[in-house]
Design goal:
By secondary structure, this protein is mostly helical. The protein contains four helices and no strands. It has one domain (10-69, 79-147): Ferritin, core subunit, four-helix bundle (Ferritin, Up-down Bundle), CATH 1.20.1260. Helix 1 packs antiparallel against helix 2 (41-65) and helix 3 packs antiparallel against helix 4. Residues 12-142 form the Rubrerythrin diiron-binding domain. GO terms for molecular function: metal ion binding; oxidoreductase activity. This is Ferritin family protein.
């Protein structure tokens, strides 16, 4: 890839997309584990479902590229996976979907930026297709968000907060 992170080949672009999907899988599974530890099974299940969806996307990319094994690690990381710092042990499904929506928007913007910078028509078209796929994910998440009530204003109040004894 070039210094600004624009891939030069379809293989580089798809390796980036694959890495983003795998990063999201790992992060969502990590969130699910944290939510289980904090006895928040509903949110843990939602994170597991998101991880499964991202894993499927990664498998689809690998299959389309004919990769028997994942591509070698890429030099520059791209946005897409939310940070564990964004999680709260009392978060609710609405919060999970907001994190996922933010991640999908970052991925959409990332691929749109690549498409805007590409001079190769085939590469630009592939980046646009990935951008459109991410837009589809955004619309699905927005539909889910519309179905879920907003959390109460005191959603993070805990009368018995965790205590860490060293």
């Amino acid at each position: 890839m070039t210094a600004v992170g624009t891939p030069k080949t379809i293989a580089e672009l798809m390796a980036q997309a694959y890495a983003m999907e795998r990063d999201a899988v790992a992060r969502y599974r990590e969130f699910a584990d944290v939510m289980q530890v904090h006895n928040n099974p509903e949110v843990a299940a939602l994170f597991c479902a998101l991880a499964d969806q991202e894993a499927l996307h990664a498998e689809q990319i690998a299959g389309a590229m004919g990769w028997a094994a994942p591509p070698a690690s890429i030099a520059q990381r791209a946005p897409g996976a939310p940070s564990l710092d964004d999680a709260h042990y009392l978060m609710q499904p609405w919060h999970v979907l907001q994190l996922a929506l933010q991640a999908e928007q970052q991925a959409c913007d990332f691929f749109g930026g690549i498409a805007a910078r590409c001079t190769d028509d085939e590469l630009r078209e592939a980046a646009r297709e990935l951008e459109e796929e991410e837009r589809g994910h955004i619309e699905i998440l927005r539909t889910w968000i519309e179905r879920i009530p907003l959390p109460a204003g005191n959603w993070d109040d805990d009368p018995d907060p965790p205590r860490y004894n060293e």
